[in-house]
Amino acid sequence: MSEALSLSQERTQLFTDIMDGKIPKRVPVASNFAHEFAIQYAGKDLKEVQWDTTDLEASFEKVCEDFYSDLLSVSAFRMPSFYRILGSRNFVMGSNGFLQHPEVEGLKLEDYDAFIASPYNCILERVLPNLYPELNSDPVTRSLVMAKAFKAYTDETNNLFRIYGNLIDKFNYGAVTLFAAFCEAPFDILTDQLRGFKNITLDVRRIPDKVEAAVNAAIPLMIKMGTQVFPNKYNATFIPLHMAPYLRTKDFERLYWPGFKKLVEGLAEKGMRSYLFVEQDWMRYLDYLAELPAGTVMTFEYGDPKTVKDKLGSKHVISGFYPLTLLKTGTKQECIDKAKELIEILAPGGNYFFSFDKAIITLDSVNVDNTKAVLDYVANNASY
Question: Which residues are within 8 A (CB) of 159 and not within 5 positions of it... i.e. 6 or more apart?
Answer without folding.
Answer: 53, 56
